[in-house]
Amino acid sequence: MKQNKLSFKSENLVVDWIGFNIQGLIDRKQVKQISNYLFQNFGFNSTIIKRINGKWKSESLNYDKLNKFQVSFRQHEYDPEAKSFWVGTKIYFSGKNAAQIYKGIRAQKLDWNIFQPYSLSVSRFDLCYFRETKPTEQKGDLELFMNKCCQKTFARSKKNIAEYTRNDQGLILRIGARKRPNHYCVYEAPNGLRFELEMKKTIIQKFLLIDHIKDFEDKLTRHFYAYSKKVLVLDDSYTDWLIHYSRKTDKPMNSLVTSYLENRSFDSLAEQKQFFKLLQFLSFSRGKPFFLEYIRKQTYYVVEFKISEFMLFMKIENKSYYQIKKVKEFLQSLQEETPFVKIFTEKSFRSVASFPYVELEIQHKSLVGRVAIAKELYLYDYPFSFPSSFLSYQTNHELQVKLQLIQVMSTNSLEKVFDVKPFLDQFNVSTQKKAYIKKLIVQSFDQLKEHNCIENQFQLITKSGITKKIDKLIPLRIGQSKNICFYEKL
Helix count (H) and strand count (E) of the chain? Predict the structure, then answer.
């Protein structure tokens, strides 16, 4: 499946540092030309720092009190006594200054030719995510979180570097050597935390200097989040933003996707079937071409499709008159039934029709559907995906098992709990049927494991309260259990 490109803006990332190296440049006039360009075109005051008699001395190159931004030039000359062998000039943009120059780069307003004829490279690029403090977080929680991150780093190798300290601004977590390609920091800041990744030139050089901005942002965004998952613990409230990202990206079109569900039971089997079809249709519609329609300020996505395509998506092989009739009835009911998804209960969405337009007609001997879906629903970020095997069911009991697992997976926590006893107790069936349902539960868990939706290990809590850790479920163990605890895999 072709992935949508990510951007810094879409994933709430901020550029916090940009460093350039210009090898061979030590001529002050050339440095002045560059500083003049940045001063005149981007409003940057500038300073130059140079080693004189073994000490670094700073002086101003350009200054205007009305300018809000600053750039620093640092000149390096060959000096064996100071162990300085690289010759050239380093340019640093930090904090808001980096965000400002990147704004110009992204708009393709920076003339790279100003750095010619010298060799220019990107030496460092920092991305930062800011997470606001939550009212429920207590004093001491942050230090515990940082300590767990350090332990995770040491668990990979005792040689790894990880430490947290405290300064005037608060706690700081540092992971990895500063000179390595990746250096990760978590800073305590006013009203929240800053998660920052320093990236060196080996992973950022190629796309930035040739203005392939979309590719550049997509690759660095994915790298930022992948590395964050590598070094941070995920079973903590401070990484809720990271879990959210992991759930909503790269969802395959041929899987069932669902939003958070209300923790409620359905009143009837018919209601369960209606809701399951709704999930199927939402998954199907997001993979079809669309055009936009507008009713005042409300936007609708209109999808057009053959009914046979929707049936194929749901794994309905027997396209009999009866099956086609049931699908037609479902599509016609979209305007009448109330879905049980939390997004429908938000005040901003309550007065908007979810499916204001449903049409079925014969085109070239094929039955074609045309459905308008409210933008808020069509573009909703579904945080969970399920394998294609969850798209269909052969028996009512299989539907009930899968729907229960969908509800369990939709809880907003990495740790999931499947309440076995109350689920099985609802079925007033024979022992043979109960055994069949237990087998269905095992098969559904196996499907989630095969598609890397969940971790491989389970915790079974028996009816007597004993906890057992196992790697594989079997029907007998299901029947002996009160709960099955397992973890979502990100």
Answer: 15, 20
